[in-house]
Amino acid sequence: MKAVFPCSYYLPETAASLYLTDNIIHACAEQNLEVDLYTPTPTRAVPEGAKWKRYETDVDGKLRIHRFHLYGEGKNPILRALRYVIGEVMLLHYCIWKKYDVAFIDSTPPIQGLKMPLIKWLKRKPTVYNAQDIFPDSLVNNGLSKGGVLYGKLVASWRRLPTSMQIRLS
Questions:
Q1: Which entry of 19, 58, 59, 144 is 20 to 30 Å from 10 by CA?
Q2: What is the three-class DSSP state of 46?
Q3: What is the spatial distance between Cα 89 and Cα 81, in angstroms, rounded to a whole number?
Q4: DSSP letter at 13?
Q5: What are the tens digits of pLDDT across the range 44-88?
Q6: Long-range contact pairs involving 56-62 (C-beta distance under 8 Å, separation at least 24)
Q7: Would you say 58 and 25 are in contact if contact means Cβ atoms under 8 Å apart?
């Protein structure tokens, strides 16, 4: 069986919970699942001018990491959002045109999940959505949102979840 992991970030970058993705893909490969991870070249907290391999293998060739070039993230929120959109289009491209049996979608950044219905509709492939790092109030706390009606509904529904569910989903 073959799985595709379209990831907006992957090691050696610094991003929340990358270790979970790394643990999952290695565990899958160690259980003889063929894993293809597609990700942009690292840009967060990496030395200027650093070079990265476009293709790496691990776990006796069962884990394959494919990197594509994408400009650095930077501080500008508009350019950062554009980078996310371009990255997601590239990752969707790989999900549509590559051969695999199951797609594993992360929840970070939040727009990653938008690929799921397209993959299911276009490829008719099963998908797994890994919901993690979902904290609705973090947008307001980081100054990226002022809150509002939708935000209030998100936070209210989040707070109604049992604590054990919040921990499992985080």
A1: 144
A2: coil
A3: 12
A4: S
A5: 777 777 777 889 999 999 999 999 998 877 788 888 888 888 999
A6: 58/26, 58/29, 59/26, 59/29, 59/30, 59/35, 62/29, 62/30, 62/32, 62/33, 62/34, 62/35
A7: no
CA–CA dist 149, 37 (Å, integer): 37
The first and second tokens of residue 89, run together, are 């289009």
Query: Would you give per-residue pLDDT tens digits along the chain (170 residues)?
Result: 999 999 988 888 877 678 888 999 999 999 999 999 999 988 877 777 777 788 999 999 999 999 999 887 778 888 888 888 899 999 999 999 999 999 998 877 767 777 888 888 888 888 888 877 655 555 555 555 565 556 556 555 655 555 444 444 33
**C-alpha of 89 from chain center:** 13
Please answer whether residues 14 and 43 qualify as being in contact, where contact means their C-beta atoms are separated by less than 8 angstroms.
no
Longest dimension (CA), the chain: 50
Q: Which residues pair with 127 in a beta bridge?
A: 103
Give the pair of three-digit tokens for residue 116: 């799921």
Q: How many CA atoms lie within 13 A of 48 on its CB side?
A: 1
Q: CA separation (Å) from 129 to 94, 126, 145?
A: 17, 10, 25
d(CA 126, CA 119): 8
Length of the chain: 170
